[in-house]
Amino acid sequence: MAGVSLRRVRKSFDGQTVIRDIDLDIADGEFCVFVGPSGCGKSTLLRLVAGLETVSGGAVLIGGEDVTAAPPRARGIAMVFQSYALYPHMTVRENIAFGLETRRARKAEIAARVEAVAKRLELEGLLERLPKQLSGGQRQRVAIGRAIVREPRVFLFDEPLSNLDASLRVQMRIEIARLHQSLRTTMIYVTHDQVEAMTLADKIVVLNAGRVEQAGAPTELYRHPRNLFVAGFIGSRRMNFLPVRAEGMRDGAVEVLLPGGGRLAVPVAGEGARAGEALTLGIRPEHLRLAGGAPDLAGPVEVVEELGDEQLAYLRLPDGGLVTARLESGTAPREGETGALELPPAECHLFRADGSAFGRP
Amino acid sequence: MTRHDDALGLARIRIRAAWMFLAPTLIVLAAVAGWPLLRTIWFSFTDAELGNLSGYRFIGFANYLERYEGEWLGLLADPAWWGAVRRTIWFALVSVSLEAVLGMIVALALNARFPLRGLVRAAILIPWAIPTIVSARMWAWMLNDQFGVINHALLALGLIDAPVAWLADPDLALWAVVIVDVWKTTPFVALLILAALQMLPGDCYEAARVDGIHPVRVFFRVTLPLIRPALVVALIFRALDALRVFDLVYVLTSGSAGTMSMSVYARQQLVDFQDVGYGSAASTLLFLVIALLTLSVVVLGRLRLDGEAGR
Predict the structure, then answer these.
(1) Which residues contact A187 (CB under 8 A, 6 or more apart)?
(2) Which of A9, A109, B96, B201 is 20 to 30 Å from B41 at the Cα level?
(3) Which of A83, A98, A102 sits opposite B203 (nearest CB)?
(4) What is the pTM of this model?
(5) Do B14 and B99 fall into the same domain?
(6) Confidence of residue A71 (pLDDT cuts 50, 70, 90)
(7) Residue B88, burial from CB neighbour count under 10 angstroms (0-12, 13-18, 19+)
(8) In this predicted complex, what is the ipTM?
(9) What total number of domains does chain B contain?
(10) Where are the domains of chain A?
(11) What is the extent of the structural domain holding B157?
């Protein structure tokens, strides 16, 4: 078992920089998720940790040891690929055992370890099958088994669930979480799905255009996004962004002018905010409430989505912007009616014009 | 008419259409392959001669084997024929084995990334693109004992003291034919293997790298089993060609100096000795030998494939 550290890691392909000076520390036993939109460099970063790509600059440390120049096999890692990467002509048993046979391990020991892994992943009845005779979920379990059996210091997962259908994905997600609980090995997991990131991670690393936008615990990223990108990326429903104008500072709060003319004191550390400055207010759909008294935001309801236990109402604001509110089932106004919403000040985020967030208590 | 009858009528029309589309091919095949084959088999039971193809009589199996004044005569008792059979099979085994190994090496090299790969891939096909007669003539000149460039080069390098009679020396001539055949057909084998290599799943190789499996082991345990179907097809094609080898031998040595193949033997009987009956018997046996070998390769190959699939 070992932690992983990246020191000013850089990677470029043919003069195009895809990873820019990334510094990152992943603690021993931590479940770290790299998340970001496609093309953000998350898979490349994982392949740099694996040693499948060589860094253009900087250093990769595993267990405190510099492995920047070491080949993949010398790094003590195991990797699960998006496409499973099973050997098509080998049975499940041979697939799992293949990585062990090189280490001059005794046949009986290999067989015992394969059996143990098969039992753990409920693959016992499938050991003599070929990959083509397995379902997608079973293949993914074989790929995981092939990684586990080598008892690596670090597990690397490259979008392992993206080829599975939605229900199987949830099931495998739980299996992977359980696996991490029992193995307590460091895991690095790449995904573009922020729900997977939120549910699995001890630490989420949000990547964008080859840079780390923010790294931290899931709740930290949810409550205290450092900038607009993270705020918009994390959360199962995208945060609403409203253009506002700073009116002035009161102690520990910035008073802003909302679209439609309402005023709101947002409790943020407002140092540096100037009156008249254009800012962005962020509020998550799940934090908007129907107004009891005078509304903060009002506008015609364009669409209501019925989800059974909840409703999503889309309001057109006076400035032309659209705002999404998650409301309790049966409470939303009808389409075409005017909706009136209240913004709980404590749930609001405030961002400067450059995208950076004001600190929240 | 009911719908059922309609459907039957439609099926009949489709079957008739299928036969109409097949008919030209079947007629041409019958004319250029079926008829000559049947005629050859028929002639093998006669005493026909090239100078007089109409005045022959049926003599049964006499061309193959007959007992005449206490002696066994006929093709099956002819040591020259059996020499040709042995030589042809030896030639096929050696040249196809060399082509498999070299073709594999070339394909693996061409599968790697390097600058100008496209150009090299095209260039390697040149020997295969040249007509056999032309390349055989070219090699005959290069291998010429007095004026050949190969002797010249070897002499200049000091590797040999005197010119070597590559095509006249019975110990060397068949090897010379093998070398030219390998030179010519390795690109074909390499291309078929390369096509198979490019279909291989790339992530399996990354998985093997992460798992620290030695590249040689990956080749024998992953690459080779995965490209075996393509390899078997390439080698069956090559083996059939090699067993029928004629033009190469005929141009290089005219079948002398211990290089006579089954095809060259049959031609010699047919044309040089004018003995159409005997030559036809040789051709028929050649056909049977190739058919049996092919059949056994296909059957054995399939049995092994089934055995694997059933595991």
Answers:
(1) A30, A31, A32, A154, A155, A156, A157, A180
(2) B96
(3) A83
(4) 0.79
(5) no
(6) very high
(7) buried
(8) 0.82
(9) 2
(10) 4-227, 240-351
(11) 84-309
